[in-house]
Amino acid sequence: MSSFNINPINLMHTLTMALDLAVDGVSMHQQRTAVICRYLAEEIGIGAAEQQSLLGAALMHDIGAAPYYEERRLLLDPSRGCDEEFVFRHAEEGYRLLLNLGCLSHAAEAVRYHHDHWTGGNPSGLSGTNIPLASRIIHVADRAEILLRKHCLDPDRCGPVCADLLKETPVSLEPSLVDALMACSKRECFWLDMTNNTYIAGFHNKMDWGHTPFTARDLLDVAGLYSIIIDRTSRFTATHSRSVSRVAALLADAYGFSKHEVYQVRVAGLLHDLGKLSVPNSILEKPGKLEADETRVMRQHTYYTYRILEQIEQMENVACWAAYHHETLDGSGYPFHIRGDQLPLGSRIMAVADIFVALSENRPYRKAMDADEAEKILRGMVRADKISGRVTGMIMDLRDKATDIVRDSDIQMLEAFGAAS
Ligand SMILES: [Fe+2]
Ligand SMILES: [Fe+2]
Ligand SMILES: [Fe+2]
Q1: In the Cβ-directed half-sphere of 92, how many Cα atoms lie within 13 Å?
Q2: Residue 264 CA to ligand 3 centre (angstroms)
Q3: What is the 245 CA–ligand 3 centroid distance (Å)?
Q4: What's the pLDDT band for 82 if we cut at 50, 70, 90?
Q5: What is the average pLDDT score of the chain?
Q6: Ligand 2 centre and the CA of 156: distance in Å?
Q7: Residue 159 C-alpha to ligand 1 middle, in angstroms?
Q8: Cα 91 to middle of ligand 3, angstroms
Q9: What angle do CA 319, 321, 325 make, to 5 degrees?
Q10: 157/68: higher pLDDT
Q11: Ligand closest in space to the Cα of 230
């Protein structure tokens, strides 16, 4: 585990995709915002070290909005817009998420003020150059990205984009940064980059970021951060990912997985529902049965979990173990319809851990089940050739410990809310 290292910017760039997921695909808002920030940084001539932390913050700037699907959509919709309370709230929530995460805390401040108006009147009390430079740059880049998409990323519509930006300049945006953006927009490469999704998706690859590599501990912390975001998408799953992670690790350990593999199972458990950020909260929280089109949307979550996690270096197993948790032994699961022996043991473990934890939690349409009721359902699924009989036997042998994990997570969450209120 000590030899483990990972490029932080690659990891953040990859996971950022999850923050831009929606029913109709990936918007790439944050990645494109980061590219615009890079143009601005070079135009005004800021140093390499400052650029690195600016781009890191730009890639995560809307992280506080991630659990709130509808509001997140409104933030990116220039024709409807979002209410000002949420605009400042998501910046503050992003700051709080990042602040205590050692390896990402450097981005917290820039995220906190990325909607502060240049002329003041902000909850922070800041104005002008008292607002951190990185926040001011992200603010301009964020607005530019939204307006560029409003005008269909069309270089011939450069005029309207600039006019819209200038309209916001007297109050909201720093005039000299808007001027810098105007200068960038006069270069053909700017528009070609904006419309080149391959470049946007890989712009960071050729850059020498000079960051200290992330350790295994850092990756676990980042996965923990994302698990909080995923679990905030519904009040019924406030601790789900953390519990699945711990129950799956308990099973993997009992199976004799190596220390490194148990570590990977923990990361996979924390991130198994990452793709749920593509599903509207109204579907995630629906009390009744889902309609066919809602089921289709719900089912896309493991597809995105896989497509995002498969891009993380040195984490080959994590993508499979995390994303195959709705695959079944008879091949009727989703989204890949992997069957029988093709389903790795780590994925079978994750599937059983996920079902056990879900049954042990309250849902909008039923109360939490005890271990006996959960066993009946799990055994039925074994008979139907959906999940592994061996893994189910193992979790039943460990039922007291597994039940304690789910209950402890609940208590920790209640304590955290109690302390916050
Ligand atoms: Fe924002
Ligand atoms: Fe944004
Ligand atoms: Fe799931």
Answers
A1: 9
A2: 18
A3: 13
A4: confident
A5: 89
A6: 24
A7: 24
A8: 28
A9: 110
A10: 68
A11: 3
Residue 177 CB burial class (10 angstroms; 0-12, 13-18, ≥19): buried
What are 218-228's pLDDT values in tens digits?
899 999 999 99
pLDDT reported for residue 421: 29
| pLDDT band, very low/low/confident/very high, at 236 (cuts 50, 70, 90) | confident
> 49: CA distance to ligand 3 center in Å?
39
The residue among 209, 220, 249 whose CA lies nearest residue 350 is 249
Instruction: Output the six-digit token pair for 34.
Output: 């980061």
Domains (range + CATH), the chain: 8-202 (1.10.3210.10), 216-420 (1.10.3210.10)
Lowest mean pLDDT among 138-147, 160-169, 367-376: 160-169
Expressed in angstroms and rounded, the spacing between residue 75 Cα and the centre of ligand 2 is: 7
Q: Give first-to-last CA distance, the chain, whole Å.
A: 38
* Single-letter amino acid code for the residue at 360: S
196 alpha carbon – ligand 3 mean position (Å): 32
Half-sphere exposure of 296 (CA within 13 A, CB side): 5
How much is the pLDDT for 417?
Answer: 43
Ligand showing the shortest atom-to-Cα distance for residue 29: 2
Cα 238 to ligand 2 centre (Å): 25
Say how many Å lie between the CA of residue 72 and the centre of ligand 1.
9
Q: What are the helix (H) ranges across 175-291? A: 175-185, 188-194, 197-202, 216-231, 240-254, 259-271, 281-284
pLDDT tens-digit series, residues 154-207: 666 666 777 777 777 777 999 999 999 989 988 889 888 988 989 998 888 776
Distance of CA 61 from the midpoint of ligand 2 (Å): 6
